[in-house]
Amino acid sequence: MATKQAPSKATPPPARRTAATKSRSPARKTAAASASSTLRSGRSAAKALKDTAAGAAGTAMAVAGDLTELVAEASHNTLAINPLLGLSRRDVAGAAKSLLKAVAATPKKASLQYGRYLKELAQVMQGKSALAPEPKDRRFADPAWKTNALYTRLMQAYLTTQKELSHFIDASELDKIEKGRAQFFASLVTDALAPSNWLLGNPAAVRKILDTGGDNLVKGLKNFVHDMRHNNMMPSMVDAQSFKVGENMAASAGQVVYRHEMFELLQFAPTTPDVHRRPLVMSPPQVNKYYAMDLSPDKSLVKWATDSGIQLFVVSWRNPTVEQRHWGLEDYVMALDAAVDVACQITGSPDVNMWGSCSGGMTLAAYLGWLAAQGEKKVANTTWAVCVLNSEAAIEDSTLGLFNSPATIRAAKARSRRKGIVSGEEMASMFAWLRPNDLIWNYWVNNYLLGNSPPAYDVLAWNADTTRLPGQYHCDLLDLVEKNPYMNPGTLEIGGLPIDMRQVDLGAYVIAGITDHITPWRACYGTARLFGPKTTFVLANAGHLQSMINPPGVPKSYYFAAPANVEDPMQWAEAAQPARQEGSWWPHWRLWIQGMSGETVKAPTKLGSRKHKPLGAAPGTYVHEH
After folding, report:
1. Per-residue model confidence as pLDDT tens digits over 512-548
2. How many other C-beta atoms lie within 10 A of the C-beta of residue 483?
3. Which residues are catalytic?
């Protein structure tokens, strides 16, 4: 793959405030040594709590022990393209410097703000503050935060510190980027120092010490030691022991019909007497394994597609090692071409429909541009799930905008070339520190303070089954972020041919999630616009993965569906309000993909063909590589 210099563009504005960095975990020895003294202190504090919160104890324990909310929030935060740039110590130090600069540049304003802060604290101490957490802030869901005067003041003092620091940064004379970085660092610190993260500052944890005789501390310490040894020094998000790939996950019937150095092609068994002639080939992201599409029978897109009479082929990418460090975007494009040729040969169809999600969609776009540059028509229609092809739009709506710079990209590329791969654990850890309240501190409290096991949930088990990225492919993805070639024709070359998405002419169906902060829906709308005003754009009321894995029967689901026939996404959303439909978008897509898949023929009785004989049962062998 070769890239050319894109036209210059303005620095993107800062993203919504998030918190991220890397924190040093307490030493195991210190944790073990302090366990007994903490137990004694905890019992004393628990007795003080008992009278004021006894009536709410059952409710509090139900809230504290309820893993449903924990799972729901974490499953919104699955891996995607966000951590590709990396977050170095230099970035964090630069964010801290921006905060210090705000103080140094306006010392008088800082002094006045500090005075207001002290007045607010005085109101808190006197019990006169009305400050309350956001309704969705689960950190303060325990009733004791409202009924116990000590905990109420502790919570309000924390919220006051958080609020006043944020206000000071907003009112400072920093530019937009530096304000964003300062907010980034401030939220990092305040999130870590939340009283709910500390044993005696968390009423549910203190109460559990009394109720269990300190057994939660023993279990919490065991969980802590396990994670230090086996989970990259991060709190475990999932108990994956009950999930087995090929048994109760990725269990749809099928065969490996082609094995390539880079992928296995899975053909899934038809479940209807007749099938549509034109097959569907799925290009899943390289960042995770394919079976998000086949988690379980009740939420399997694989099963939904075959039950719709679609001949389905799915690419299962190989998990690369340092030996494959040279694999790049061009190699992945050629691999997709091989998969399409096999699907056509097996089904006898002259062309295919394709599905691309996340980074798999970015690869699919390069493939379509390469086909168009050659004048080939192998792909008739496409489905795009939570996929952003306009990287500038994604940066504007995400934390990436705070640290995206030529220097940052050069540093990220240098790391990849030096190491040869980007490990899944590294990406997972990096991404967790971009959403620490959801992906770190929630589990810190659940696993260590309360002594609970992490939840057993299929989405999180899949997300924990990470893959590596080859160093060259990572560098190529960074080029896509920097050059934005799908919006800037001629800045990307595949096989020596310039890519111009304006030459790509096909049907398109694009899915996005209203609450998706990984691939923001407005940026996904730009993907729809790339393929013309007749493109169907579907907006589901869900986050990143949930907007894609959205089977019928999920409570409170709804979506909007309409042609992407206006430039402004907000204008589209306003016009689409009357088109709101209750339930899952899957039945809507079923009608669309059936209409795009040609005539029906008798379903094959055997998978593969004489040329491409089955090599083994799905999910194949590559999916098991770690």
Report:
1. 999 887 888 999 999 999 999 999 999 999 988 888 8
2. 18
3. 358
